[in-house]
Design brief:
The structure is a single chain. Helices cover about 5% and strands about 15% of the residues. By secondary structure, it is mainly β. Among the domains are: about 120 residues, no CATH class; about 50 residues, no CATH class; about 210 residues, Alpha-Beta Complex (paralog of FGE (formylglycine-generating enzyme)). Strands 22-21-20-23 form a four-stranded mixed sheet. A two-stranded antiparallel ribbon has the order 1-2. A two-stranded antiparallel sheet has the order 3-4.
Length: about 625
């Protein structure tokens, strides 16, 4: 038993006692025993000094101590705090059963109760041997664990539990393994360990959720992305060739936007699943399935060149829409730089309101004979019967390879020219190369004798002949298809209107002969070879060719043609065709020439042997 010692300070004493060894008290030193104390717990010590013999006056004995007790500090022999005692019952009660009162040396003190002494204060049960009541001193004093997943322990005088490792087998509370927190639990998909059929912690095996990429697996269904590597037995990142729908694919290896930064998979085929139009090759997602391309699905798909237009199945596209490279994809039939163009009168196709290619419909010029029309105003000759017809007094001339044009059946007569002359149209509308021409009066045989009204008009220059034809909605015969005929084409029936009509598309120009009526010259049919002068067409009905009813293409008067060497003014050399009443057989040919080209005269020539006829 431990005691707490109380030391008392005592004044110096002069002791006279028989305790000395045959000497007086004043001649030696005496050690006094220490005084025991209570809870103050001090230690006792003494100090003395004395002489070495002789009488008592040689020295003194003193004792000096400082202690504590349950009552306080004593000084001059009193107990600390004044708690003196003769028996322990006189000492004040302690607040804990783990400290026991003692009465020692007349003073109250305490001693610690033995270890494991039972107590009830401070919420404890057992004394710790150091004067305190604690919950436990050893694990045996703690409540026993009810599970093998926890072990009772006494740590720092408090009852605690040490938990078994997560996953350790157990068999209590209906469980089969420890959860690491002291509880025996049944196998689940949230127990934090791989168990049961799981292929990795809390995943896979068909019972738990699929495992993320990188976790262990056995089959594809163990994995979130449905792909388990046979080589590594781990779940794989989705690809566009793994044979399953995963990542953000909308169907097997198609659709979606690409997984984790990877490129998107190919678009899905018709009837495969989709979430939006771009998931589908058809660009049409309807009710979460890719729909076949149609001309009313609001997207560009199939063979369409723009949204719901163009391609092999849909209507042609409007102006400004995409057309690929083909005008067939456009309502205007004109595709340029990938876009449908607004119709024009020079784009080479029938579009807009046109009734035929670049003509008719009110938006373009009138159409030529043989071209389609809707109303008379669609036609240059003002006659429409589904196609434009030749006006009265003109004949249809076929074009080899297809198409027609019109030509005057006879040379322009005095009677016909007089109607133009009498109208006296303005000269301001002439072409620049005719600006020198100031009127419409022939230079000779004018006014004409009434008896000559069916003879060809003569003494007119090229510009007067052209103006007459234009005034009547026609033109001087020139190039097939329109425009002037280059002089190099004077004997090409594919290109030159006058020569094509004269030779019946070349049929009358074979071997050595080339005349309107055949391949051999006949002086009795036409007015030429030194005749006295022009004759009325009514007298020359046998001079036909190369079309039935086409008169005087050889002889009578030579005819101006829209085929000039230049467009500069009055001196331009322009072709005169067919010869006149003055010419011999060589110049009466359809192909009469000047070695390198047709017979010509200056644009301002107005002779008695030259007239003209018009084409359309």
């Amino acid at each position: 038993m431990a005691f707490r010692i109380v030391r008392t300070a005592v004044p110096a004493l002069l002791v006279t006692s028989a305790l000395g060894l045959g000497a007086s008290c004043s001649s030696g030193a005496v050690d006094y025993p220490p005084i025991l104390s209570g809870a103050g717990g001090g230690t006792a010590s003494t100090s003395s000094s004395a002489g070495t013999g002789g009488t008592g006056t040689g020295g003194t004995v003193t004792t000096s101590t400082s202690t504590t007790s349950s009552g306080g500090t004593t000084d001059g022999g009193a107990c600390m705090g004044g708690h003196t005692c003769t028996t322990v019952s006189e000492c004040p009660a302690q607040s804990t059963l783990c400290q026991i009162n003692v009465c020692t040396g007349g003073c109250c003190g305490t001693t610690d109760a033995a270890v494991n002494t039972t107590c009830t204060d401070d919420g404890g049960k057992y004394c710790d041997g150091q004067g305190a009541c604690k919950a436990c001193v050893s694990a045996t004093q703690c409540p026993a664990s009810t599970t093998t997943c926890a072990t009772a322990t006494c740590t720092a005088n408090a009852c605690t539990s040490t938990f078994a490792a997560k996953g350790m087998a157990c068999a209590d509370s209906g469980g089969t393994l420890c959860n690491g927190s002291g509880t025996c639990v049944a196998i689940s998909c949230a127990d934090g360990v791989q168990n049961g059929n799981e292929t990795d912690v809390d995943c896979g095996g068909g019972t738990c959720a699929p495992c993320p990429d990188g976790d262990t697996c056995k089959v594809g269904t163990d994995c979130t992305d449905k792909v388990c590597s046979a080589a590594t037995s781990t779940c794989q990142t989705p690809t566009c060739a793994d044979g399953v729908q995963n990542g953000n694919e909308t169907d097997v290896d198609c659709g979606g936007t690409g997984y984790m930064g990877a490129a998107a998979c190919a678009a899905c085929a018709n009837y495969e699943k989709c979430a939006k139009n771009s998931d589908c090759a058809s660009m049409s997602c309807s009710s979460n399935a890719c729909a076949p391309a149609s001309c009313s699905d609001g997207v560009q798909n199939g063979t369409e060149t723009d949204v719901d237009c163009g391609g092999a199945s849909c209507v042609a596209c409007a102006n400004g829409k995409k057309c690929g490279t083909s005008g067939a994809n456009c309502l205007s039939k004109v595709c340029a730089n990938g876009f449908c163009q607004v119709p024009t009168c020079t784009d080479g196709v029938q579009n807009g309101a046109e009734t035929d290619i670049d003509c008719g419909g009110g938006m373009c010029g009138p159409c030529n004979p043989g071209e389609k029309c809707s109303v008379p105003t669609d036609c240059s000759g003002g006659i429409c019967a589904t196609t434009c017809q030749c006006p009265a007094g003109m004949l249809v001339v076929p074009i080899q390879g297809g198409g027609i044009y019109c030509i005057d059946s006879v040379e322009v007569t005095y009677l016909a020219y007089n109607s133009f002359y009498s109208a006296n149209p303005t000269t301001a509308n002439q072409d620049p190369w005719c600006s020198w021409n100031v009127g419409w009066t022939p230079t000779g045989a004018w006014p004409y004798p009434q008896a000559n009204e069916y003879e060809p008009v003569r003494y007119v220059n090229w510009c007067q002949a052209e103006a007459y034809c234009k005034y009547n909605g026609r033109r001087l015969c020139g190039q097939i298809g329109g425009g002037s005929s280059p002089q190099a084409n004077f004997n090409d029936y594919f290109k030159d209107q006058w020569f094509n009509a004269c030779t019946a598309q070349g049929a009358n120009c074979t071997g050595t002969g080339c005349y309107p009526y055949g391949t051999s010259f006949n002086a009795n049919l036409c007015n030429g070879d030194g005749s006295s002068g022009p004759a009325p067409y009514t007298n020359l009905v046998n001079c036909q060719g190369g079309e039935p009813g086409l008169l005087n293409m050889s002889g009578n008067v030579a005819e101006w043609e829209d085929s000039c060497a230049a467009n500069s003014g009055s001196g331009d050399e322009c072709a005169v065709r067919g010869g006149s009443y003055l010419d011999s057989s060589d110049n009466l040919r359809c192909d009469s020439d000047q070695t390198t080209g047709p017979l010509t005269q200056p644009r301002d020539y107005a002779g008695n042997d030259v007239g003209f006829r018009c084409c359309l």
